[in-house]
Amino acid sequence: MSDKKTQLLEAAIDLFSKEGFWNTSTARISKHAKVATGTLFNYFPSKEALIDEVYVTLKHEAMDAMFQGPAGPDDLEALFKQVYVNYVRWGVANPVRFKLLEQLKLSDLVSQETQQRIYSELSDTKELFRSAIRDGKLVDVTVDYLTALITVNIETSVKYAVDNKLKGKALDKFCDKGFALLWKGITP
Q1: Each residue of 91-102: pLDDT tens digit?
Q2: pLDDT in tens, 6-48
Q3: What are the Cα distances from residue 141, in Å, to 1, 84, 132, 154?
Q4: Sign, CA torsion 145/150/153/154
Q5: DSSP structure class, residue 122
Q6: Cβ neighbours of residue 94 closer than 8 Å, sequence gap 6 or more
Q7: Rounded CA separation 69/160 (Å)
Q8: Does 47-186 carry CATH code 1.10.357.10?
Q9: Domain layout of the chain by residue ranges
């Protein structure tokens, strides 16, 4: 990714999180990124395209963090714990980015195409869920419902940890307890 494109994305993330999507003009984003006003449109054909790219950038950061580590699909509990802990830690370390990602997810600003793109990137994870449900390792619910349950649990955990300024051993203990609750809820 070019330096200017990165500068524009970072400026958009900063301003969207501080001023909101509707209150932030493309000219303001360009100025904040320290690039010429028209430069933004060399990388993004519209403000909507920029918003989509911000969403993809934040989702990829979160997903990259979640899947860091040695656990593989053979140890389902270890894999789920790794994903849970990594995402909570990413959210705690990046509260502004986490909150903006949440706002984008709940808004109608992200295009259907972009949402579908991210959804399709998670197809391996969804297949892992299907297989684990079939094998009786996870509760017998639809993959979409299971995904929603897990997502809400993790997002609530991030919000709680951020609100309560959990760090170090307190965050470790919280993650252990939070994951134990999640695991009990999604396993038969």
Answers
A1: 999 999 999 999
A2: 999 999 999 999 999 999 999 999 999 999 988 999 999 999 9
A3: 40, 20, 11, 18
A4: negative
A5: T
A6: 61
A7: 24
A8: yes
A9: 1-44, 47-186
How far apart are the two ends of the chain, measured CA to CA in Å?
44
Topology of domain 1-44 in CATH is: Arc Repressor Mutant, subunit A (1.10.10)
- Cβ-Cβ contacts under 8 Å for 84 (sequence gap 6 or more): 153, 154, 157, 175, 178, 179, 182
Distance (Å, whole) CA 105 – CA 118: 11
* Residue pair 78/176 in contact by the 8 Å Cβ criterion: no
Of residues 187, 73, 66, the one with CA closest to residue 133: 187
Please state the length of the chain: 188
Beta carbons within 10 angstroms of residue 15's beta carbon: 19
CA distance 84 to 150: 9
Structure tokens at 60: 């990829």
Global pTM exceeds 0.85: yes
